[in-house]
Amino acid sequence: MVDAYFSKRRNADAAEGFFRRAIDETGLTPEKVTTDKAKCYPPALRAVLPDVEHRTSKELNNGIERDHGHLKQRLYPMRGFKQATSADIITRGHGLVRNLRNGFSSLTLHVPLNLRLAVAWPQLAQTI
């Protein structure tokens, strides 16, 4: 997961903001982007990343949707988000924790699995 973004609306402007923020924060420009088939993504990708390969196959997107299940499971006791800022904080923190646990973060490349969250806690605290 490169970035998590919460928006009140799912439109091309929100998608464009997500892609710009992901590029700014990582300093990387992707060659391929995987999304669902929402109509807001193609115009946003044409504006921000005109040469990127946009992949929308169900098989590639299943992993993303499966991860959303983990987030929804954590939100159930909270009865959803009350404010957009809370949603943004929770989704960004969730993305960081998932990347740490799955070994996709340079913060914990050589850290044993059981210590990854403890080592990266200062980074997680910055998102709050």
Automatic annotation (TrEMBL):
Residues 2-103 form the DDE domain. InterPro entries: DDE_dom (IPR032874), IS_Transposase (IPR052183). This is DDE domain-containing protein.
